[in-house]
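Fold this sequence, please.
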Amino acid sequence: MAGSANAGVQAKPEPGVWPIGKATAKAPQSKAQAAAAACDVLVGAVSTAGVASATGIKATRPLSVGGPAPFKFFSVRASSTWYYVADGSTTSYYSALVLQGANLYVANATFKLDAPAVPSSYKLGTGWSGFSTIATSNYVQGPKAHGFLYGLHANGSLYRYDVSTGAVRAYGSAPGYKAFRAITVISETAGYDTLLATTTAGALWTIRIPVTAPFKATLELVRSTGFKGHDQLVAQRCGASSTLLAGLNKANNKATVYAMSRAVGTKTVLNTLGTVEINADPGVRFLRTDADGPQLVGE
């Protein structure tokens, strides 16, 4: 394994880095502001050698691709969204939940002026070897903020954990997800989160999960075929209620990009915008976004 999360390990989180799911004073983005914003998605990655990078994809014709400089991190086998936090001075952070071996960590990358990024981490717990993929919601622009961690397990269940306090608290699970392969969050609201998920057979589904207990998800088919080649999904808000979706293929290091309307089952509009090459090393990929939004409103 290239690099360990124990390098730069912390006994407790740096102030302001985690938990991310805290209410913010920033006003929610209006529909007019959202509609006028350029649609893009920043696909983060950590290579098998432990190098962090990102590919920015903008929904132009043809697609525009760019990205910030890579930096040394440590290898991980799964990652949640990376949330960007600035403290108002010369320091900023990316913070995420990651899996390395059987352990769950909070991972941080700290930036100070022009100095190289400094990775650090602290362990939240062990016993996570059965999880293949994880995703986080971070609803902060409303009266009932929450932060949840979702994970697909080898036993065929989908698990939810409350991570809004900095600890990890089990918050329900359900069987019946053995066929599912990749998940990403497309909606985070005061009342529910929605995951977008692929199956090993290539179907695309939404999974709506109320924020209350018990865990009781509603599944709705979006497409029955066409998504078999996507090992990972990364989604970002586009406009007032749509989603810019990147379907990632580890075999050829390519991303197929879709403009997705608000999810309404098989009536969901999915327009293919093109395919681009990203991150040459087929490691772990995820969304990079700001900690205070934009909030995801895809369903």
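The mean pLDDT is 88. The radius of gyration is 18 Å.
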